[in-house]
Amino acid sequence: MTLPRLSFPLRLTVLLCALLLSTPSHAARCGGDFGSFVSSISADAQAAGISQGVIGSALSGVSEDMAVLNFDRRQRYTFNKSFEQYVSTRVGAGRINGGRAMLQRHAALLSSIEGKFGVPRQILVAIWGLETDFGKGDMGKLPVIRTLATLAHDCRRTELFQGELLAALKIVQRGDLPLRDMIGAFAGEIGQTQFLPSSYIKYGVDFDGDGRVDLRHSAADVLASTANLLHTNGFKMGAPYGEGTANFEAMREWNHATIYRKTIAYFADQLVGR
């Protein structure tokens, strides 16, 4: 979920605004020597049940990424465009036509997901299109472990990102993604609908039945996991999802920003000709 002209996810932007107000400026073990921090978080990972093999392969030799810190510090946690201005940059004829093609191509899969999770296909495809252009766009190019270790060491939101780092290690531990595929965006978001690692663990679904949750390569897992997140937070099939509805509120777990949820709803309606 991206701000205009920025690759920082709007959903995380809103979350981080709240955390900046509520989280102490100096959480445990933040700052100081980066190597000492890695040793400390490695002990936390072991206590959380992560194997020494995963810890060693993921964190041995990891270094701080100053580009991530610099990018993070440049973000402006505001949204200055109107809905009309924003939606015009995100939902054009090409993306609508692409979404309609995805509805046709994945019709059987989407029907199965609707039946299990009770989330309409047009909502799922709208989110998919907005996040990464149906998996064809930019999913991020940064090593997730290095990115999260960098942000976890920083003293601004260390508790949040230490949790995300441990969740990322659990993704590798579970065998969902190998370390080489743990590539994501500037806050550690992963895959075709840009799940933070904690959401990957909490909501991820192995819908293609291959024994792992793969949100980078498996459209079935991507769409089912997105549906599971919405369903778990109260989204109901057959009910309206525009602003002011219960379903619109259920989408807050996906994105707190009203303007983004309005864009999802608008795009979804365009996909089905409303």
Can you walk through the features of this model?
The structure is a single chain. The chain is mainly α. Helices cover 57% and strands 1% of the residues. It is built from 14 helices and 2 strands; from the N terminus they run ααααααααβααβαααα. The longest helix is centred in the middle third of the chain and has 17 residues. The chain is globular, with a radius of gyration of 19 Å. Keywords: Signal. One of its GO terms (molecular function) is peptidoglycan lytic transglycosylase activity.
Q: How many DSSP H or I helices?
A: 14
The total strand number stands at 2
Total separate domains: 2
| CATH topological fold name of the largest domain | Lysozyme
- Rounded to an integer, what's the Rg over CA atoms? 19 Å
What is the CATH architecture annotation of the largest domain?
Orthogonal Bundle
Largest sheet: 2 strands, antiparallel
In CATH's first tier, which class of the largest domain applies?
Answer: Mainly Alpha
User: How far apart are the termini?
Assistant: 24 Å
Mean pLDDT: 90
Structural class: mainly alpha
Shape: globular
How much of the sequence lies in strands comes to under 5%
Unreliable residue runs: 1-11, 13-28
Placed side by side, the strands forming the largest sheet appear as 1-2
Helix content: 55-70%
